[in-house]
Amino acid sequence: MLIVIDTWRADAFVNDLMPALTAYGEGGVVFRNAYSSGNWTLTGTTGILAGTVPSEHELLSQYPEVGEYGWLQDDILLLPDVLEYRSYQVSNNWIAACGGIAERFDVDLNPPPLGMTLEELVDEEVVSQTTPAIIADILGEDRVYFVHYQLLTPHFPYCIEGVDTVVNGFEMCVDTEPLSDEELAQLQADFQIAHAADPDSFLEGMRALYDEQVRQADEFVAGIVEQYRAADLRPLFVVTSDHGEAFLEHDNLFHGDDLHQEQVAVPLIMWGPGVPRAPAVETVVSTVDIFPTLLDFAETVWESDQLIGRSLRPLMHEDAETLSRAQYEYFAFDQETQQIALLSGITASVPIEEGTWTLMEERGDPVLGFEPKLFDQMADPGQVEDLAEDPYFSGVLDTLSELNVVLPHTEWEDRWYGL
Fold it and tell me: Which residues lie closer than 8 Å to 176 by C-beta, 6 or more apart?
């Protein structure tokens, strides 16, 4: 059972906001340093389902008309292709609209694709309506099953029933779908005016609405879990996110425009059959590790260079030894040159310096002229002090750059130990 909560940043997984998921995590394993492979819905979710990073799965747009980058290629297999289980998908419309994903599931219970109104976008209602049908189908045929739920909450616009969603005079519950370019430009201008009037209170109000939607997501997930429990079904649950959300920590708002912690660090919780009740895991892991982990639990062997992650089952036992590693990518479009640049990040342990480090760099031929950024995650988890220009840490930067390649995990470990 894979549940992906959209736009759920790592620091939003706290008991005050998510008591149900906190309780579930106490009965299983919480991975405290997990990272998505992308910084927005499509690349992050496809990374989970394909077990690899955006530059490998190459599904980069939700619009099939853009060509090959708008449709999942036939040679990229997803979890439902490899698991010999009956598969179901109940997703928000961003994933439902993406070429080639829903078609890989046996049962597609997604809402209609892009162009819906806000009322139709409340995919949690779709989840509530479809879950009984899924359970009935599973019980009717005594099926072995894989279900992927994808919730849209939390996500801007912040529409919360019974809650005042006006911040500094700006209505945060606004339907952007039917707006013309001129209306959208006016909306953006109004947003900037509201922020400029009192930046601190504006961000505080936005974060409060975001947190309220996080509470709702906790309730939605608990509702799903309890429906399966009521049917005496006890699946393995994996709950995570496709990406985080920025609130101007590094001058960016929302997501999809850089690789800092707030946009790529996500929660990851597992519980159910085969998962021990264990202390929180501090090792750096990635959402691309979910694919090989589920194969491990299913006792399914699939040898493929597509998978760059590793099974997380050994980390559920305290005596396990493995390297900390997560990679994530962002494709940026340069308006001036009309070229696409690949920005790549890696958070990992390095063999020459104790601790965990993060490197962000432009991979391949330079397009943006993006200067590398280096952060000491142990001393500076908020990624405030860039150490890339400090000659003392040049060895760490060079080592991480050598490690920042897309390889199957065993080959990556061979390279790590060879440095």
Answer: 157, 184, 187
Q: Per-residue pLDDT tens for 150-164?
A: 888 888 888 888 899
Could you tell me how many residues make up the chain?
Answer: 419
pLDDT tens, residue by residue, 290-304: 999 999 999 999 989
Measure the CA–CA gap between 402 and 250, rounded to whole angstroms: 26
Give the start-end residues of each E strand in 230-382. 237-240, 246-247, 253-254, 265-266, 268-271, 281-286, 325-334, 339-350, 353-363, 373-376
Dist. CA 241–CA 39, nearest whole Å: 10
336 belongs to a structural domain:
yes
Q: What distance, in Å, lies between the first and last C-alpha atoms of the chain?
A: 38
Torsion sign (Cα): 216, 267, 306, 339: positive
Percent of the chain beyond pLDDT 90? 58
In a domain, 299, yes or no: yes
Helix (H, G, I), strand (E, B) or coil at 171: strand
Pairing of strands 253-254, 246-247: antiparallel
CA-nearest of 83, 129, 132 to 110 is 129
Query: Where among 316, 344, 373 does a domain terminate?
Result: 316
d(CA 193, CA 322): 49
Number of domains in the chain: 2
> What is the model's pTM?
0.93
Is 34 within a domain? yes
351-386 pLDDT tens trace: 888 889 999 998 876 767 788 999 999 999 999 999
DSSP 55: H
d(CA 326, CA 348): 6
C-alpha pair distances (Å), 357 with each of 138, 202, 267, 331: 45, 32, 19, 22
Residue in the block written with tokens 């001058």: 251
Give CA–CA dist 161/141, Å, rounded: 38
Q: Report the sign of the C-alpha dihedral through residues 78, 79, 84, 85, in that order.
A: negative
Domain range for residue 387? 327-418
